[in-house]
Amino acid sequence: MAAASSSKPTVLHLGDAIKYNHEFYNNEFSSRFNVIQATETDRESFIQALKTKKYGNFSALFRPHFQTGGFMGQWDSVLVPLLPPSVRIFASAGAGFNWADTDLLGSHKIWYANGAGASDEAVSDTALYMVLGVFRNFTRSQLAARTADVDTFNATHKLIATISRNPRNHVLGIVGFGNISKKLAYKAKTALGMKIHYFDIVRATPQEEEALGATYHSSLDDLLKLADCISLHTPLNKHTQDLIGKEQIALMKPGSRIVNTARGQVLNESALIDALQSGHISAAALDVHYHEPQVSPELAKMENVTLTTHIGGGALETRINFELNAMKNIIAVVGEDGNFKGEPITPVNRKAFEAATSS
């Protein structure tokens, strides 16, 4: 497919066609841009397409669904330099971006914008469910009930009351205090009566801390020592790989709990298994997995571990808004002439982008 001749800036569409926001797409998006669908299905053919300028000097990359459009693999030092200098923004669905070197994109004066905000409600609800679950051992009880065995039912009925706790007045230690975890903090404090403590490299405003009743810790270790349950909410990058490992878990209280709705490799799987087997960690809940989509067979056997299939953001509202926000980000950045006209709504790589554009 050759690049179409059009006076409108070109957007290269990666992955499946839009599914939800057809009115916005027709009236606001495709009326402003010449949208071309990438036809490649593997990395090498996509690299060749970029080298031969198959799609011309496009102004934006548009990936409206995080489950498709990733056929080219990592956006790395091989792929990014092949993009034409006309590219202003890569707008993608999904909150995570460990598959793209966003700093490298920024150094090429390309914004990267994710779907931040679209999944906040769903992921914070999932984390709240998991926090309640690890205190009350609901997974163990569900597994017992599903045996349909009377003896198992009775034994578990008796056991649960001796090992479960109400979350109220316990300390929820939140690692990474972004929009999702701030929603979790509000829900856990309001609905469950928990005490909110958090660690982040950037401290929230005094107004946010007061509204959420949140106590800041400048040291992750200090938070781990205090928390009755930690909930992980950090992106996966070279700094957060195995952020919670053997040494960090050892700092936690005996019998404490771990919830992970962030990325699997933020939490060292082997260290978690050892801590669960020893009883140092009493329960865990994981929506994300170290070798995803492969779930640890050892964890799968443990009745005190809740496991889900990375569905933290898995609500229809999330998908609708991922798609919509990707379009809105491109509209915010790319002007009628294909040049910059503004900033994205949900920028990820501001520091790298501003460093490149100011030099």
From TrEMBL:
GO terms for cellular component: cytosol. The keyword Oxidoreductase applies. GO terms for molecular function: glyoxylate reductase (NADPH) activity; hydroxypyruvate reductase [NAD(P)H] activity; NAD binding. Residues 130-312 form the D-isomer specific 2-hydroxyacid dehydrogenase NAD-binding domain. Keywords: Oxidoreductase. It comes from the Eukaryota. InterPro entries: D-isomer_2-hydroxyacid_DH, D-isomer_DH_CS, D-isomer_DH_NAD-bd, NAD(P)-bd_dom_sf. The keyword Cytoplasm does not apply. This is D-isomer specific 2-hydroxyacid dehydrogenase NAD-binding domain-containing protein. It comes from Talaromyces atroroseus. The lineage of its organism: Eukaryota, Fungi, Dikarya, Ascomycota, Pezizomycotina.
